[in-house]
Amino acid sequence: MYLRFVYARTRDRQRRRMGILHRRSRGCEDVDAIDDLHLWLTRNLPIPPNDVFSAGRALCWFKVDAHPCIDKVRDLAMLLERGGERIWQVYSRNPGLITYEDEQQVVAVPESIRLTGHA
């Protein structure tokens, strides 16, 4: 089982939801706490290489047993929600074709994108 945290509001005409690790916290009064969480995640969560994202079509998913990282991202979600954002937790048993994996996460191209070729 895998888990993603995404903004409820879609980002473009394709109706894709952006993961909350993308910085969108401008104007939030908890900027220092958000920056601290991003710093912790930068130090403790490996950054997958660019080539595993299949030209921007792949998504990052936490493994559900990556508790320290998930706890920090839940804290981040709480701060973003307090600032007016709506955050969703999305679970999946099959995130798609896995192009990268480490102890805490996978990167996967969703099946719908692989079949249609559209993001």
Overall form = globular
- Could you tell me the strand content as a percent range? 15-25%
Query: What is the arithmetic mean of pLDDT?
Result: 88
Major sheet description: 5 strands, antiparallel
Give the % helix.
25-40%
For the largest sheet, list the strands in their spatial order. Answer: 3-1-2-5-4
- Compressed to H and E, one letter per element, the order equals EHEHEEEH
Structural class by sheet pairing and helices = alpha+beta
Rg, Å, rounded: 14 Å
Tally of separate helices: 3
Instruction: Give the count of structural domains.
Output: 1
Distance between the termini: 23 Å
The low-confidence runs, each spanning 5 or more residues with pLDDT under 50, are: none
**Strand segment tally:** 5
Topology:
Blueprint: E1 2-7, H1 31-44, E2 59-63, H2 67-82, E3 87-92, E4 97-101, E5 105-109, H3 111-116
Antiparallel strand pairs: 1-2, 1-3, 2-5, 4-5
Structure notes:
- Helix content is 30%, strand content 23%.
- With 119 residues, the chain is of the alpha+beta class.
- It has one domain (2-116).
- Strands 3-1-2-5-4 form a five-stranded antiparallel sheet.
- The protein is globular and about 40 Å long.
- The model has no long low-confidence stretch (mean pLDDT 88).
